[in-house]
Design goal:
263 residues, alpha/beta, eight-stranded parallel β-barrel
Length: 263
């Protein structure tokens, strides 16, 4: 998978079985995810990623078999509905589970938190997983699935690594064989700092993506630096991550992206 100013649209899958907000109808979850995949496809998006963000509160660095199964099926259906490259993230930090779901669902990449170093997240202490995760990828024959890794992840305190700057963190992820690094703002929907993004881009040779806070207004600034953008909140009704994907917002955004690409 080659990234060149690639736009990835997020599908935040409805609450899954066993989680506090699950509504009891898994068929409707699949149906909605497929509908949003079709919207992204028709609006000209490049790639899609699915995430179980509605499964609050999240478990720490693991997820049950019911979540892995549900995300595998959902990913399979989304990819078949869209015929686009598709990835997956399972919160919080359930990276081996995401990798197994990606393999079963025929997906192309996973988004990983807690790849290198450690941080304090909402769920508690998150430790680095690179060594274990990449060995697991080898063991299950999933080397074709790319691993994109958040650095200085949002919704987290990084006080314990405050003497390690974001460029050094990105370099460590590259050294530990990450396929690409993701720079975010402090919270969902908050923009990434442009100076931090430039620092990361100068620190590594692997792809650098922006993973939060991208809008039609700031996308040009990000595309001048980053290799790709992951967009969730902006593509939703009223620009809020919890709502459904709105075709007009995606289409308008992608029209602007294509003008920038062509220029």
């Amino acid at each position: 998978m080659k990234l060149h100013k690639t736009i990835t649209g997020m599908i935040h899958v409805d609450p899954l079985p066993g989680t506090p907000k699950y509504a009891g109808n898994f068929t409707s979850i699949i149906k909605k995810a497929k509908e949003e995949a079709a919207i992204y496809r028709d609006a000209g998006i490049d790639m899609i990623a699915i995430e179980n963000m509605h499964d609050v509160p999240y478990l720490k660095q693991h997820a049950g078999p019911e979540i892995v199964s549900a995300m595998s099926v959902t990913g399979y259906e989304v990819k078949n509905a869209s015929r686009l490259p598709c990835g997956i993230q399972i919160l919080a930090g359930a990276n081996k589970e995401a990798l197994s779901a990606a393999l079963a669902g025929g997906l192309d990449f996973i988004r990983v938190e807690g790849f290198v170093f450690s941080h304090i997240a909402d769920e508690g202490f998150i430790d680095g997983c690179a060594g274990e995760l990449l060995r697991y990828r080898k063991q299950i024959g999933a080397d074709h699935i790319k691993i994109f890794t958040d650095i200085k992840k949002k919704h987290s305190s990084h006080a314990i690594t405050s003497d390690v700057n974001i460029g050094e963190t990105a370099h460590a992820a590259e050294f530990f064989l990450s396929d690409g690094v993701i720079v975010t703002g402090n919270t969902t929907g908050s923009p990434a700092d442009l100076q931090e993004l430039k620092h990361v881009k100068e620190s590594v040779r692997i792809p650098v993506l922006v993973g939060s806070g991208v809008t039609a207004e700031n996308l040009k600034s990000y595309l001048e630096i980053a290799d790709g953008l992951i967009v969730g909140s902006y593509f939703k009704y009223d620009g809020h991550w919890s709502k459904g994907v709105e075709f007009k917002r995606v289409k308008k955004f992608m029209d602007k992206v294509n003008k920038i690409r062509n220029a």
